[in-house]
Amino acid sequence: MGDEAFTVAVAVNNEDVLQKNLLLSPDLLNRGRNQVTLRRGFSSASLAYNSAIEEAQHDLMIFVHQDVYLPEGWFADLKRSLAFLEDTGANWGVLGCYGSRKGADDGLGRVYTRGVGLHGLHLGRPEPVETLDEIVLVIRKSSGLRFDPNLPHFHLYGPDICMTARTRGMAIYAFQGFCVHNTNQLLILPTEFYTCYRYIRKKWARYLPIHTSCIRISLLNEDFYHRKIYETRLRLLGMETRAVKRAEDPRVFNVGP
User: Which of these CATH numbers, 3.30.420.40, 2.40.128.110, 3.90.550.10, 3.40.50.970, describes 7-185+246-253?
Assistant: First the structure.
């Protein structure tokens, strides 16, 4: 597993963000072994990433946000986690850095998110979860897993592919792959997010509730309505624009797990 190569797929809509974040990751190219494929001009993450799967040169694929920084040693942590899953005979479908499940309110997998800081439970070994955050997703091309081409926009495709894997009898794991998500903190989620929420809620109705990193998708929409009330209060107070902006250099947050 030490010489394993990966296809790294990135949906790109901002070249400056890409250059100042993901492309700063020191081991990204793995001395030329890894394939890095940049997906531009797609209307959804699913369409972008499915096209990357078709062109992938390697079986192991990493889907990562353009505003994520992968510090030195990140790929070594991933390889150790993959070796653990292989040694234990786990039938895994999707692997990621930050996962959610019932009762794990702080999330599983220690990461740094701009505007939040360090969060998530540090993991000594990969842990089963229900869904994974989209910052980093790992699959095997040979698994047959694909992103739903009918899921619009760029939200909740992580939980969606995790649910697909689950229905095919494959497990979902979070591993300790510390990374920096150098994002613009959003106090009010975009309309597109709620469009995706409704799509996932209808598609996976028989499996509700579904725990994700940002909201619990449920039959009665409890978290949905709580979130909407919160956002309405922010608007009334004129606070919707008081979010933390992306840092110029994500390496200043490389504080380790």
Answer: 3.90.550.10
Give one DSSP letter per residue of 87-130, joined into a string. HTT--EEEEESSEE-TT-TT-BS-EEETTTEEESB--SS-EE-S
| Torsional sign, CA 60, 79, 105, 65 | negative
The distance in angstroms from the start CA to the end CA of the chain is 23
> Is the predicted pLDDT of residue 169 greater than 80, yes or no?
yes
Annotated domain spans of the chain: 7-185+246-253
Would you say the pTM of this structure is higher than 0.90?
yes
List CB contacts of 237: < 8 A, sequence separation 6 or more. Answer: none
Closest by CA to 53, choosing from 120, 139, 113, is 139
Give just the sign of the alpha carbon dihedral 226, 229, 233, 235. positive
Bond into 149 cis (ω within 30): no
Pick 133 or 115 by higher pLDDT. 133
